[in-house]
Predict the 3D structure of the following.
Amino acid sequence: MHKFGPLSKIQLLAKNFDFYSGLLLIFISVSFMIMSYRLGVGDLRQPGPGFFPFWIAFFIFIMSLGLLAKSIIKKIFKRQEDHLAERSNFKTVFLVLLVLVAYGVVLDTLGFTISTFLFMVYTVGILGKKRWWVTLLIAFSSTICMHVIFVQWLRCQFPVGLF
Amino acid sequence: MTLLENIVLGLHVSLQLENILFCFIGVSVGTLVGVLPGIGPVGAMSLLLPVTYGISPVGAIIMLGGIYYGAQYGGTMTSVLVNIPGEASTIVTCLDGYQMAKQGRGGPALGIAAMGSFIGATIVIACMMFISLPLAKIALRFGPPEYFSLVCVGIVALTALSQGSVYKGILMALLGTLVGTIGMDIFAVPRFTFGVTELADGFGLVPIIMGLFGITEILVNIEQPEESRSYINNVKGIFPSLADWHTSLGAIFRGTIMGFFLGILPGGGALISSFASYAIEKKISKHPERFGTGMIEGVAGPETANNAAAQASFIPLLTLGIPANVVMAVMFGGLLIHGIQPGPLLVRDHPDIFWGIIMSMYLGNIMLLILNLPLIGLWVKVLNVPYKLLFPLILFFCLIGSYSVNNSIFDIYILAIFGLLGYWMRKTDFEAAPFALAFVLSGLLENNFRQSLILSDGSLLIFVERPFSLFFIIAAAGFLAFNIFDIIKKSRCLRKNS
């Protein structure tokens, strides 16, 4: 039984992560099946460009139906708990992924050096919660290091941006 | 060419100054990532992949290979001294290794692990020299149906031998195959690209691997509250005593054999062989109850096995052209980027590359033995760096690694998406390894499938009519059946208990 008392069927389903994975996989597989169909599936004698992806997506579709069914049965009839996602901290996940995307967005305009400095300030200061002068010190020194390693030593090509 | 000529050729390649240097960089980086929990050889290899574009293919593979077996050495140190596995393949080493270190025998534990690894690796490399040529000769006769079935066995075996649910594993392997079809097919028809030019060649290997393994690892680690790590610092006398040798020698040889066979096996590798070796040592020991209290066999066996397996898993990659695990899949991607198709033709047409890599493994193991053992104290100090300062750097390396392959900002977004996907998979018990391997092999799988159908004029029977292909299909079915038995047995046990 659940430690907070019995949950309704809907609530149990909402905490059921296999259920979501199943739905997501069904969505993916159906869209790929439709797109493959449009590309031309062909037949065994003359498989078209859509042949292989179509059948792979078809198997995914069948198996995710199974996953979905299993998760519904497990939740509603057996009332087993999902303990996997309890210790998740989706806020941190979001903040980390955000900085990756943001780096991609600003790289072209601000250039490698400034973007890297801001990246370090964000990750060390905001995510790592270091004091501001520690943050600035680390950000400054690591930006110089990265510049030496990637730009001068490995000669990677970066957008120059402002500098 | 005779074996001796090949060895001389290999030595000639591997002893070139720049290749010695790459080997050294490889094993050092490998040791470093091995020591650090949270970044493994897969991440480190994909990070260094863009760096290798400027150097020769042999140098690149020597360096990447060094990372893999170097990590096995490094992981041991963390397991023994901190009781945290630096690598997944050194998890079992914690059990007895840490106990030994607590009793002041950390030195001999690390010593026997390193020397056992060296012995195991040397024997495996010697075996490799003898079986690679015959194996490649057989593989030269493989046609598309054989390759299709072989790739299937590889993916199925990896799924079946992994720890999670096989059902979900197969689902992930299928998804990986599907994602691998994005981009142009063999007739240059663009598929699922939505008009995005960056997708014409499909998703890049590096952002996907780094997202699934690197970023996911960061996301999982960062959630956990920082624990102060207490480690055992006084490592004295790394040379095991004669009595230690006496008890470990059997374990070392059994570990070598185990590592060799589980390393060659598709889906096998360092992780499984270390567990298998520990289980065997415990089973045949006269005092199984004393395992977990600091038995030196419990360190020597698994440590030898993981290193032997790391070496042996090069065999299917180099001779058959099929990567047996995710690490080898990254290596496979690396070779392709350098314009080298691993497989039987590599052994025949580029003996300098093949034998150069093999001989460099000898060299790398010697380097690890004489350079790293005295430096144990230094490596362990790396663990003092708090994770809060470490993760921005790892994150940044993942980011730049993904970007610099094609200088493409699009790849940074792919990295973020697959980081999220990997996190979701980790939290819901889906495994990333079958996905990654299937993604890498997707093209091979599809092309051989289509060519087989053209050969057979549309008959699927071609896969069971040819003996080698039939053998592989039976093997794949065997792996699956074995797992289904296991599931039935487990559910019966559960029912009995409840």
Remarks:
- The radius of gyration of chain A is 24 Å.
